[in-house]
């Protein structure tokens, strides 16, 4: 790629779609990055001839732009201290818990904030340097909330969109943030700010009114300009989705169907396989799920041999204290439940602390009778949508937390409040005994709903709104 290549369309996110890793032979190579942001944006970028600006997942790594698996990537380097202060610190120990209902207490440190600002500036400069005149730049997520305003200052010709993949909290929580004004100002640099849920967009508009007193009339916010007049910023919900077709196609492949059969056989062909798939994150409600499952075992409502819970808990943010603690808690609970209930031949919980490739995920979805998504708070939760996309057999039951963004659309799931352990147990049992007819009718309705909003619909709707807003502003 020539050095100063310019692009008309740029996606900017903390993570690139691939992480730089060292393989077993000691050779550097790339591996798919974790999390739903990459799952959703990868097909969007394949369709567009743009560039993806982001971090390669390792400290102190200066890499030239390149094309990996058909996507132009422009790596931004972070020092080890920046990984600690900007990524693990401000992004994942301040903003992440604050924006997820303070499930874990957020930590506020001024040096983390300074690092967040410096790294946001670097992302803004890296994007400005490769943007063609009047290009569209789409900034992603809470790690980069200052980038829109920084970019607007550097390049007023650009059309700037922002999408927040996690919730935006109510003002009573948001207002704890010492840098609450600066973050809102950063976001208001965008022409369109997208959120997962209508409630998130409402919370953001309220924060703008409370902090700055700007006039808002949903979905528009009037931002006064220095020399008089105003700019209009659109703040609106655009629920993210997945490439439904590609998940379904994968789930129809004979070798994946065979792998699903093999998984069931390896688990001893139980009557009911329950499945949880999450990054090992305190927002995902894994502990609540295990508590409910343990009580069902204890009361004899379910028995080992007849039922098993497969829990994929993929490694995440492993140097952040709250995540280390969570891992200890979860693994202690799993150990106890297996110790109390497993037999030589049958486990109670198959606990897997790994990140699996997509093919294996799809086989697991096909093998699972009941999918448990019990997040305490989650921007969207693409796992719930992937389960539905894969069930072309119109079978399987989705138990879904009402605190996951996906619950706004997937109303034919069994919706639960994961804090209500009795209610959760009842829903899990309802899923176990649900008649085939009801499973089929619920799954058909879920699949219809999912097809109405796949990831290409999401990105086109957002980008059309962005184009319209920018046209009005010119
Ligand atoms: O990059 P990491 O720190 O390893 O974390 C992985 C990603 O987690 C979060 O995902 C969110 O985006 C999903 C897609 O919109 C959504 O379904 C989910 O509810 C969110 O939690 C995070 O927002 C991403 O930035 C991370 O890359
Ligand atoms: O071992 C794993 C665990 C998860 N995932 C994928 O990671 C994404 C998780 O996205 P979600 O929106 O559910 O949550 P996030 O991790 O982004 O908070 C989904 O595409 C999963 O299929 C995966 O590929 N391998």
Automatic annotation (TrEMBL):
Keywords: Glycosyltransferase, Transferase. GO terms for biological process: trehalose biosynthetic process. The keyword Glycosyltransferase applies. GO terms for molecular function: alpha,alpha-trehalose-phosphate synthase (UDP-forming) activity. InterPro entries: Glyco_trans_20, Trehalose_OtsA. Probably involved in the osmoprotection via the biosynthesis of trehalose. Catalyzes the transfer of glucose from UDP-alpha-D-glucose (UDP-Glc) to D-glucose 6-phosphate (Glc-6-P) to form trehalose-6-phosphate. Acts with retention of the anomeric configuration of the UDP-sugar donor. This is Trehalose-6-phosphate synthase.
């Amino acid at each position: 790629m020539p050095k100063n290549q310019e692009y008309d369309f740029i996606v900017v996110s903390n993570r690139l779609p691939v992480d730089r890793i060292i393989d077993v032979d000691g050779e550097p190579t790339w591996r798919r990055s974790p999390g739903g942001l990459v799952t959703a944006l990868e097909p969007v970028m394949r369709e567009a001839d743009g560039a993806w600006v982001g971090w390669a997942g390792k400290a102190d790594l200066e890499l030239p732009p390149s094309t990996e698996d058909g996507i132009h990537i422009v790596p931004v380097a972070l020092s080890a201290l920046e990984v600690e202060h900007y990524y693990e610190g401000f992004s994942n120990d301040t903003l992440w818990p604050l924006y997820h209902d303070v499930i874990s207490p957020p930590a506020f440190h001024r040096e983390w904030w300074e690092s967040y600002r410096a790294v946001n500036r670097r992302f803004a400069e890296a994007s400005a340097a490769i943007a063609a005149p009047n290009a569209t730049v789409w900034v992603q997520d809470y790690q980069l909330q200052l980038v829109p305003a920084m970019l607007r200052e550097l390049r007023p010709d650009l059309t700037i969109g922002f999408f927040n993949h996690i919730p935006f909290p109510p003002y009573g929580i948001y207002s704890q943030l010492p840098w609450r004004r600066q973050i809102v100002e950063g976001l208001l640099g965008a022409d369109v700010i997208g959120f997962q849920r209508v409630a998130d967009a409402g919370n953001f508009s309220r924060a703008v009114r409370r902090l700055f007193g700007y006039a808002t009339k949903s979905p528009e916010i009037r931002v006064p300009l220095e020399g008089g007049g105003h700019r209009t910023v659109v703040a609106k919900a655009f629920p993210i989705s997945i490439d439904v077709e590609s998940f379904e196609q994968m789930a129809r492949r004979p070798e994946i169907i065979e792998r699903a059969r093999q998984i069931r056989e390896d688990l001893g062909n139980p009557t009911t396989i329950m499945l949880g798939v999450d990054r090992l994150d305190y927002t995902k409600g894994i502990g609540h799920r295990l508590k409910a499952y343990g009580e069902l075992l204890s009361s004899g409502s379910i028995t080992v041999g007849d039922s098993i819970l497969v829990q994929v808990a993929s490694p995440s943010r492993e140097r952040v204290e709250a995540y280390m603690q969570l891992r200890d808690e979860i693994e202690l609970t799993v150990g106890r439940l297996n110790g109390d209930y497993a037999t030589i031949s049958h486990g109670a919980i198959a606990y897997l602390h790994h990140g699996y490739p997509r093919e294996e995920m799809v086989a697991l979805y096909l093998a699972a009778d009941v999918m448990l998504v019990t997040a305490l708070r989650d921007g969207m939760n693409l796992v719930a949508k992937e389960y539905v996309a894969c069930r072309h057999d119109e079978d399987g039951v989705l138990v879904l937390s009402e605190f996951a963004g996906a619950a706004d659309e997937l109303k034919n799931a069994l919706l639960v409040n994961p804090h209500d352990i009795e209610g959760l147990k009842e829903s899990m049992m309802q899923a176990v005994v649900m008649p085939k007819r009801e499973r089929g009718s619920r799954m058909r309705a879920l699949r219809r709903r999912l097809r109405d909003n796949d990831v290409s619909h999401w990105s086109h709707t957002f980008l059309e709104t962005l184009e319209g807003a920018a046209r009005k502003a010119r």
